[in-house]
Design goal:
By secondary structure, the chain is of the alpha/beta class. The chain has one domain. The protein contains six helices and eight strands; from the N terminus they run H-H-E-E-H-H-H-E-E-E-H-E-E-E. The strands form two sheets. The protein has a six-stranded mixed sheet, with helices on both faces. Strands 1-2 form a two-stranded antiparallel ribbon. Helix 1 packs across helix 2. About 25% of the residues are buried.
């Protein structure tokens, strides 16, 4: 794939956390979708990038069924984005997607290190309601929203609350992971600091 600076924002590492559409990516890069598919298969087999599948259960709403793109190593993604230190990361427009990517991969690694291939998904409907990560553990759905912000805001639970109401999912299985330091359980779900991931 071209390394031309003019195309930089069109490359896969600038689409972390976005829907992975081979045709759209190919159009941006001037490539056909088959070429994009071949390049991406190399990224996948090299354990550089992967896609997160959508959760298909409909709940009588129109659900997006396109996977989302992530990297196994956010350090590699940061390097490709030209991010060299924490100060640059804090100012970078990709901070949010990179934080989301980091948390999803850490949870994935926790399962894999125990010899478990997790059932991980994201969920989004056609009106923009979204959950960053769903983990299906024997029919129990754990919903996880990820924010890079260091200050907790109640409206961070908007997507989780919507999904719980729609699906009847128990709020005790809903988690907000964010960039701050507070850890507490509430009526609508649980708040955890990003550095509390091992406990989660």
């Amino acid at each position: 794939m071209s390394a031309d600076p003019a195309n930089q924002e069109k490359l896969p590492w600038c689409r972390i956390g976005q829907l992975y559409n081979q045709t759209s990516l190919g159009n941006d890069l001037g490539l056909d979708h088959k070429t994009v598919a071949r390049w991406f298969s190399i990224l996948e087999t090299s354990f550089i990038a992967f896609t997160l599948r959508p959760y298909f259960r409909n709940f009588n709403k129109r659900i997006l069924k396109t996977p989302k793109l992530y990297f196994y190593d956010t350090g590699v993604a940061c390097s490709l984005l030209g991010i060299r230190n924490l100060e640059q990361l804090d100012r970078h427009p990709m901070k949010g997607p990179l934080s989301e990517n980091f948390v999803i991969v850490e949870i994935l690694k926790n399962f894999l290190n125990r010899g478990i291939r997790p059932n991980q998904y994201f969920w989004r409907d056609q009106t923009g309601n979204e959950i960053d990560l769903l983990v299906d553990e024997g029919g129990v759905i754990y919903t996880i929203e990820i924010k890079s912000a260091q200050t907790y805001k109640p409206d961070f639970f908007k997507g989780l609350n919507y999904f719980n109401t729609l699906s009847g999912n128990d709020p005790k299985h809903a988690y907000l992971i964010y960039g701050g330091t507070q850890n507490f359980d509430g009526a609508t779900g649980n708040v955890r600091s990003w550095d509390n991931l091992p406990e989660l």
